Please model this.
Amino acid sequence: MWLRTTCSMSFEIDVPTPFIFMLRPRSGGQQRVAREEYTLTPDCPMEEFTDNFGNLCQRLLGQPGPFSITTSADVKTVDTIEQAPGAPFIEVQYLPDSMLCYLLPSRYCESDRFVQMANEITAEQQPGYDQVSAIQCWLRERIRYEPMLGNDQLSAAEVNMRQWGVCRDFAHLGIALCRSLSIPARMVVGYLYELDPIDMHAWFEAYVGGQWYTFDATQPTLRGGYVAIGYGRDAADVAIYNQFGPAVSPITQRVSVVRIDSTSD
Model:
């Protein structure tokens, strides 16, 4: 399907403020970007770089006064999410080097604290995809999804204690459980078509059977319509913006995802 994604944010800046944004999707995997717009108001110099995870990042110095950024992209993405029951677990010694960082505990995913719990959740499953699928089902059943309530930056252990959370929290707990089983897992941030309520979204991917697979316990079923912007170990790696100096928060933030005609190809 073809989707048009849009994100706009406005700020009121008091002092010159360095920003790093992560708002550009890139082609690859299950998506292809055909058109992009990136507007800064007022216009200012901007540099782009690729971070350690391959994400496209934009850095700039916002000047005092009103400042806004609007991005839009036309993206072709898959109609259905690939699933692979039975895809095997890959022993650590055979994993590509690039996967190893996704096995370790990280700031929001304390995987070393979930070994017993993860083994209990997946006790009846074959190692690999089926274990991750069982984790996804457990999250749906045990953690309450509250998309409008969570502004706190919680770790997986804190989410497990609280028993409810936003999409970011579901991803962190799923990642921690996977890593505790020596399954590489990473966080993804981006857009989801027909997400309700509409906002930026987070989910996770697990590496089994030689490739990455999508998992999202916040949704009743896996479906098409995902557009990825950033990949990382946890939320610390995939913030859509970081700013340095006196705190600046968006005055407004608007997100939209609409289906468009295939003539955009």
User: Anything to note?
Assistant: The longest strand covers residues 65-77. Residues 122 and 131 are 5 Å apart (CA to CA). Residues 2-78+240-264 form a domain with the Immunoglobulin-like fold (CATH 2.60.40.2250).
